[in-house]
Amino acid sequence: MDQLKIQGGLKLKGTITVSGAKNAALPIMAACLAIPGRTILENIPKLRDTNSMIQLLTQLDVKVEQASDNTVTLEPQSNLISHADYDLVRTMRASVCVLGPLLASRGEATVSLPGGCNIGHRPIDLHLKGLAALGAEISIQQGYVHAKARELRGARIFLGGPQGSTVTGTCNVMSAAVLAKGETIIEAAACEPEVVDLGNFLQASGAHIEGLGTPTIKIQGVEELQAIKYRVIPDRIEAATWMMAAAITQGDVTLESLRIDHLSALFDALQRAGIVPEIMSDSVRISGIHQMHPADIVALPYPSFPTDLQAQMTALMTLTTGISVVTDRVFPDRFMHAAELMRMGARLRRDGCSVIIDGVPTLSGAHVMASDLRASAALIIAALAAQGETIIRRIYHLERGYENLTGKLMSLGADVERMKEPK
Length: 423
Known about the structure:
Blueprint (H helix, E strand, L loop, with lengths): L1 E6 L5 E5 L4 H10 L7 E4 L5 H12 L2 E5 L5 E5 L6 E2 L1 H4 L9 H8 L1 E5 L12 H9 L3 E5 L2 E5 L7 E3 L1 E2 L2 E2 L1 H11 L5 E5 L5 H12 L3 E3 L5 E5 L8 E3 L4 H13 L3 E5 L7 H9 L5 E2 L3 E4 L9 E4 L10 H8 L5 E6 L8 H7 L3 E5 L2 E5 L8 E3 L3 H13 L3 E5 L11 H7 L3 E6 L3
Parallel strand pairs: 2-17, 3-16, 6-7, 10-13, 20-21, 24-25
Antiparallel strand pairs: 1-25, 1-26, 3-5, 4-5, 7-9, 8-9, 11-12, 13-15, 14-15, 17-19, 18-19, 21-23, 22-23
Helix pairs in contact: 1-2, 1-7, 4-6, 5-6, 6-7, 8-12, 10-12
């Protein structure tokens, strides 16, 4: 495995382009299982997760072509393969998004229970509840979900859970319901931009969907979808991560090709912390940051502050003057990065689903271990501002969600080196 060596204390300066959104690309790629013909997807980020999805779709008899410009062409073949193996699904939770399209297009699906980052309990019971309401017969045997349906029929489905709406569950049910007979109403649907992007893709392919971006989605089933060319939205989480990295280093960074309307909660949180972004039509500049203020942040489902930025915000708040409280209501156990930040000199205390941060003047470089994708990003943010050298191990997590991370860091002037971990 590889590790990153970062020499902290340098201000990030320059311009970078935000990559396509991983969490939009994956369910859109999965939905192509139910679309005959050649679908062309643009702005697909080159990541470990998108590569895993390509391998899974290839296993399910989809012809895949990749171009150097982040374009992927997907064309389902005639063989009715509907079995998604554990070896692929275990590495990526979004693999479960093939369940709905397989069921809708092939009448059956056998999909391993999913894996992914270790950020807390994430059952797929709401996925299965929604598909069962559409008429699927579902059982779980030996770690696999088995689903069959001679015909899917529209239904009224409630997808609310203990931590709010289910994003991947909404994607799964929506991808199946567009080919079901009659009307489907999804209540307590996820409102995240990535869900809306999947819905926009399906609509462009011929689906009839109303209410995207609201808690109630209405779908009128159609007989068939058509292959199209579609461009995936920019990654709001990557954009936000770079903003925080620029702020903590007191740098001057401009981010291009992003969706301003997807980042309102982040802009509010940054402004409360004394960071005022310069917002343009499709770009943002972070500069002139000299002193940050403590702030209380609560991660909730969209449009509130995202749980996928909770770890990065925690790292940013370690260098403020005063007390900050960062709370995660979506994944209350998502604080494995806290202990690693403390190794770098941060003063943190866990209290239930919150972490209380007593800001320090400086952080110091240390050997730290990444536990999941966003925790890895938090450690990089801290390392960029720390005095001395930081070694971050298990960086394979980063490759799941940040395209060309090392290259982008170097283009902004960071002193970073990727190397093999010692045996």
